[in-house]
Amino acid sequence: MSATLRLALSGLRGRSKVAAGATALVAALAAAAVVAGLSVQSQGGPQVDEIYRDSGRPDLVVYGEPGALEGLRGDAAFAATGAVTPFVTGDVELGDGSVEARVTPTPPASAVGAPQLRTGRWPAAVGEVVFDRAAAVEAGVRDGDEVRINVAGRPLTLTVVGTAVDLTDCFYPDCDPIRLFVDPAGLQALAPDGVERGALLIARLTHPDAADAAAARLGTSPGVDGVQPWPDTRDDILVRELIFGASLAGFGVFVLLAAAFVVAGAAAARLLARRREIAMLQAVGYTNRQIIGGLLGETLILGVAGAVLGWVAGTLIAPFLQVGLSAAMGRSGLRVGATSLLVAVGFVGLILTVATVLPARRAARQPVTDVLRDAPPRSANPARLARLLEALRLAPAARFGLGTVLARPARSALTAAALAVAVAAVVVAAGFMSTMDKMVNDPARSGDPYDAVVAGDGTDGAATAAALSTMSQVAGWYTQTDRRATLGEETFLARAIGGDPAQARFMVREGEPLREAGEAVAGYGFLQRFGVDVGDTVSIRAGEAPITLKIVGWYSETEDTGEVLMYRAEMLPGATPDAFLVNGRGESPEALATALRERLGTAAAVRARESDPDELGVFTVALQVMAALVLVVSLANLAAALLSGARERARVLGVLRTVGFTVRQTLAQSATGGAALGFAAGIVGLPAGLLAFKLLADQVTTGIGAGPGLTQSPSWLLLVVTVPAAALVGAVAGAAVTRRLAGTPASTLVRWE
C-alpha cells in the first residue's frame, strides 16, 4: 500500500463522523441535483421513440382532400401508408369549459400511425369513444364516464371505453385538437351526410431523416391543406422536458458552487486543526506531495461515496420531476445510466479536488519548526486589525465578534461565499416563480392574447363576426387560419390573421405589429431557425400559391417553440378561418365563454383559454426544493465556521469573562460575527442572483420560443429584505451555535488546549 493511500485511510479513521458525513452529504446533494437535471432532459426521448416505433413510425401526416390524398399513397418517398382516414372536428365538454376535438374511426392495430391503447378497449358500438389520454388525465375523465361532444351543432353523449395516445400531433394542453376514436358507425352518427369532413393520411417514409424535405415537397401539392412531419411533432412533445431538465441542471450549478465553498472552508478548518499532525508527518520524512495526496484522498473517498449516493437519489427522483409526458404516457421507469454516474463523480471530484488542494498546499508549506512549537495558529496582522476595529468605534462585544471573523479572512470569505450562493439561489427561484406566474396571467407572453375561442368549422363566419361585434362582453376579436407552410425545404407553422389587426394584441418585442397585406411578424424561434431578421423578405408556400412577405417585427410565441410566421388573411383568399379569438372586457375566460355560448347558440363550439399551472407547479416546486437545499447546506456551514472560530478564541473569551464580559455579551459577539458574514453574503449574493436569474431565465424563454427579455424580477419586497434578512440569519446562527460555549466557566476557557 502506498504512503499516500495509507495517509488517506489513516485520516479517514481519525476523522469526526459528523464531519465525514457532512462532506459526503454535500457531495450527494450536488450529484443528485446534476443527475436529476440530466435525467429529466433525457428520460422523455426513449419513451416517445418507443411509442413511435410501436405506432408503426408515423413519419408524416398529410391533411387535405380525400381524392388528393389517395393519389399521394404511391409517392416514391413512402415506404408504407395507412388508409385515407376521414375525420370530423367538434367540441367536447370538459369540466366548466370545452376543448376542440378531432374524431376519427378506429384504425386497424397494424396501420401506420395507429394510436396506442393505454386503458380499456376499442369502441365496438355507436355511442362509445376512446378518449385522448393526456386530456383524460388532465380533466379526470375515466373509463365508464360519459362525455358530451358537439359536432356542427349536433350534441351527442358518448361513453368512454378506453384512453389512447396518438402521435399525429403533440399532447394536450400544448396542442389541440385532442384526438378521439369511435366505431365507423359512430362517426356516421356524429356527422351524417352533409356535415363537412376532413381527411388525413399517415405515412412511413423510406428515409425518415428526409421528413422535412418530403413535407416541403408534398405541402405544395394540389388538394393538400397541410403536412406535419414527425421531427416537428417529437420536438413539440419533448420541449418541456428539455427546458425543465436544462433548468434543473443549471440550478444544480448553485449546489455545486455551495459544495465547493463549504468543502473548501471545512478543509481549511480541518487542516488548521491538524497542523501539528502535518508537521510531525513532515518531520518523519513524508513529502509535501504525499501529504497533499493523502489529504485529497480522504476527501475524494468521501466525495465519491457521496456522489454515488447522489446519483442513486437523482435517478430515483427524476421520474417524479417529469413534465409534459406523464399525463399521456405515465411516469417513465427508472433509467440507470453509467454516463450520468460518470458525470456526477467527475463534477463532484473536480469540485472537491480544487476545494481541498489549495488549503492543503498552504498547510503543507508551513515551517515545521514554527508549527511544532504548539503556539496558537497565526491570524491576520493583529496590529492592523486592532486599529481597524478601533476606528469603527463599536461596542466591545461587537468589536470582539467582528475581530473573530477578520482574524481568519480566508475561511470567513469561503463561509460568506457559500451563504452568498444560497442567497443567489433564493433570488433565482423567486425570479422564476414570478416569471412563470406572469406567463400564466399575461397570455400574450406565450402567444395567446385572447380569452376564448370560437371554432370556425361548422359555423357561419359572417354571422359569427356580426354577433361578436354586437356583444357588450366582447372587447375585440380576430380570426386565425393555420397552415403548414414551407420555406426552402423546411416546413413550419404559418398563421393567417383576419379581422381588425388592432385586436390581435400580440406582444411584439421588436419592430411593428401586423397591419396590412404583404407584412408578417415572426416568432423568435422562426428567426433563429431560418436565420432571418426583422426587415428581411421571405417567400413561402402556404398551400399551392407562393407568398412573398416582409417581416416587420417579431413577437412572443411558444407554440411550435416560436417557429411561427403570421401574416394577413388577405394573402390567403378563400380560406375558412379555423377559429375566432375573442377578448373580453375584464371577465374571466370561463365567464366570457359562457356568454358566447348563450349568444351564438349550441351550433358554435366555444372554449375558454386554458393555462397549465399544474405542470408549472412541478417546475417551481423543484426549484424551491433546490434553493432550500442550498440554503440548508450553507447555513450549516455558517454555523460550523462560527463555532470553530469561537472555539479557537476560547482562551481569549475566558480572559474577557474574567474581567467582566457577560454571557449576553458573549452571545452578542458571536451574533455580530454571524451578522457580518450574512451582510457580506447578501451584498454579494443579491446582484449575483439577479444576474444568474436573467441568464438562466433567458435560456428558458428562448428555448420555449418566446425569446429573451421576458424575465420578471422577484418582488421588490424580497429584494429589499434580502440583505437585512441574510444579516439577521447570520446573527441568529452565530448566537445559537455559541450558546453552550457562552455558559462555560471562565476557568475552563482560559486553559489553552
TrEMBL record:
Annotated transmembrane regions: 242-273, 294-318, 338-358, 413-433, 616-643, 674-696, 716-737
Top-rank taxon: Bacteria
Keywords assigned by UniProt, alphabetized: Cell membrane, Membrane, Transmembrane, Transmembrane helix
Membrane topology recorded in Swiss-Prot or TrEMBL: Multi-pass membrane protein
UniProt subcellular location: Cell membrane
Pfam families documented for this protein: FtsX, MacB_PCD
Every MacB-like periplasmic core domain range: 412-559
Domain ABC3 transporter permease C-terminal: 251-367, 625-744
Record's GO cellular component terms: plasma membrane
Family: Belongs to the ABC-4 integral membrane protein family.
Name of the protein in question: ABC3 transporter permease protein domain-containing protein
Organism, as annotated: Phytohabitans houttuyneae
